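Chain A, query sequence.
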Amino acid sequence: MALVKNIALIKHNSKTFYLASAFLPYNIKRKVLEVYAFCRLYDDIVDLKLDNDLHKLQPEINHLGLNSDVIKQLKIGIDSDRKFHRFNNIEELILYSYRVAGCVGLLMCELINIKNPIHKYHAIDLGIAMQLTNICRDISEDLLNERIYIPKTMMSDDSSTINNDIVFASINELLKISEKYYESALSAIKDIPFRSRFSILLALRLYQAIGRKIKKNKNKFMTTKMNTTKFEKSFIFISCLFEFILIHMFSLRKTKHDSKLHEAIKGLPFTNEKV
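Chain A, predicted structure.
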């Protein structure tokens, strides 16, 4: 199976995701890795401008019975990179992030058996937060591919007139927005089925740490792809254990969602319509 062969690539190229997935129940982990491999392979084919027929990939995950509308939105988002156009504003970037990452959060909900629609709002938010972090981390690599994901309202410069100070200020603004989505996702950790809960918490904190590290490295963010070190990952893991035991194991607090976070994506599958 093509996707299973790509799981080894996930372990090598997506260390943060693979580490977090290690704490999922085995039967769920296998399905999650298949979906992630599908997304990664689909994305790579688009990024590398290969001629592969993308429609041949979907049968690889059809046996999982995933929501077709969500997969459709995911593919629209990834396909948009084929003819990339800069986003005019943050709303367009949030829409893109919903499609390429929020939809992955929705697929995860199916795999770990989250059925409450309110809890799916928070899964979307985690995907959006992670995507904003990825954009900030990959800024230099994307520039080489003539892509600037920072909206024009934040940074009007094009790739030929790029200014590091302006880029860093824009990245900080995006990371500030990402924190709102991380906090929304964090508020619903307790609503995740117990056996999958720690894995999602760890993934959240690992990705969030990348953004916070970028903010502390103004002189390196354009020359070094920021990732957490093994020591930093170990520290985050230990911190998450304490956080999980003290805060997220049990909670009677009712989860609420800020509908304003979905203003740019209302009308799309499983979004909060109370805007």
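The chain has a mean pLDDT of 90. The CA atoms of residues 109 and 120 lie 7 Å apart.
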